[in-house]
Amino acid sequence: MPRPMIYLLILLVCASFVPLALIARARTSVSSRPRIHIVPDMDSQEKFKAQSASLLFSDGRAMRLPVEGTIAQGELQDDDHYYRGKVGETFTTTFPDQIRVDRALLERGRERFGIYCAPCHGLAGDGDGMVARRADELQEGTWTPPSNLHDKTVVERPVGHLYNTISNGIRNMPSYGSQIPVEDRWAIVAYVRALQRSRRASIDEVPADKRSTLR
């Protein structure tokens, strides 16, 4: 092979590494400028961010309320038994079909109860949570004690009433509907029923092979 051809071949081989070197440099370098975006995929587009201003509307706000009378897809919530704890205008005494009361649900309810309910009602439901005890110590006269979940009036309330209390609050207790998902609210109701049952169960309700372990 002629010597010029050899030099040309070497030059071409060396030149072929230049694009690879540039790519490697671009991937590892730091720059304050945006990278080259060959296929934008709508990653960068004109939009209004939350709480930003807009001249399109007379009130100057970009965020808009939903159109009156509209419901987001999948959020119709037309099952009153499941979403509101009612059958007609009466609080239900049964759990909805979507809720399977089993050990997993009770365990979930125990966890959620410990987070949202125990600070006031106490872990056992006696109304002696850390918040309630602190308020009693302060004696400021503005505190309404939380209900003892084992009181007869609470025990006799239907499960739909308990669910509604979690969803919408009662007296000084705030609503937790925006914080606790629907299924978790039913899980808490199931756990409250288990707490109440623990103090009212008879020996006849305990399996025969378990009675010897009771104290």
The CATH architecture name of the domain at 86-200 reads: Orthogonal Bundle
| Spans of at least 5 consecutive residues with low confidence | none
State the major sheet.
Answer: 2 strands, antiparallel
The CATH topology of the domain at 86-200 is Cytochrome Bc1 Complex, Chain D, domain 2
Number of helices: 7
Instruction: Tell me the series of helices and strands, N- to C-terminal.
Output: HHEEHHHHH
Question: CATH superfamily of the domain at 86-200, please?
Answer: Cytochrome c-like domain
What fraction of residues sit in β-strands? under 5%
Number of strands: 2
Class from helix and strand fractions: mainly alpha
Spatial strand sequence of the major β-sheet: 1-2
The shape, in one word, is elongated
Rg computed from alpha carbons, rounded to a whole number of angstroms: 32 Å
The CATH class of the domain at 86-200 is Mainly Alpha
